[in-house]
Amino acid sequence: MSLVALHDVAKSVRLPDDSLLQILRSVSLEVGAGDHVSIVGRSGSGKSTLLNILGMLDMPTSGSVSFEGREVRRMRAGRLDRLRGANVGFVFQQFNLLPARTALDNVMMPLGHARGRMFWNRRRIAADMLERVGLGHRVDQVADRLSGGEQQRVAIARALVRRPLLILADEPTGALDIDTGATVMALLDEVATETDAALVTITHDLHVAARARRHYRLDAGVLAEADLQRAFEASTLQAAEVAR
């Protein structure tokens, strides 16, 4: 059974002039436990919308979305919130940290709704996760005084702290230098492997995408399998032409 599955999903929004903007078109995707999937595409292709639907933050206009075989579009809001909070970890492109709270407070937030030992030991668990992303020395620093790269690592620690079944990462290395980005991707891979979690990465970086086992491209709302080797060759050719 798939962990999360989309079947024939479409998403449209109504514009101020009453016309419809089609964001996703007949998207079908199944992601199982332990999968690592990358999705590449140009800005405006619908990648973030697709990620939000996979993570149950948004619902499609039509089509089916299921999590562990349960159709989520029929769930009440409270049940959906609990399902998402316990099972999905998000790494947002814009971080979405509480700027006036410390790094530790931000990472502890998802544990406030946990149960048992995870709740009672939430401070230690959050501190350990910050240590794993290289911020053990910054636990008491408020978020808006951290650099962009440090804020990204706090966001990643927050996404991983409950050891979710599904990790959704929107440009997880976008604010990081090459070395730190590689370290963060290795951490995402490591935690996903430890917990047999599914990892879905949206990125414009072909090197980040190549770390996945399955690769897709989203173009004008249409999802298709991607040939990364061909994409690398095209990128290299384009860079050579620019350098002339």
UniProtKB/TrEMBL annotation:
Q: Which Pfam families match?
A: ABC_tran
The family database entries (CDD domains) matched by this protein are listed as: ABC_MJ0796_LolCDE_FtsE
Q: Could you tell me the keywords of this UniProt record?
A: ATP-binding, Nucleotide-binding, Transport
A GO term, aspect molecular function: ATP hydrolysis activity
**Which PROSITE patterns did the record assign?**
ABC_TRANSPORTER_1, ABC_TRANSPORTER_2
- Entry keyword annotation includes Nucleotide-binding: yes
ABC transporter domain: from which residue to which, for each copy? 4-242
GO cellular component terms attached to this protein's record:
plasma membrane
Lipid metabolism as UniProt keyword: no
Name used for this protein in its record: ABC transporter ATP-binding protein
This chain's source organism reads Microbacterium bovistercoris
Query: The organism's lineage?
Result: Bacteria, Bacillati, Actinomycetota, Actinomycetes, Micrococcales
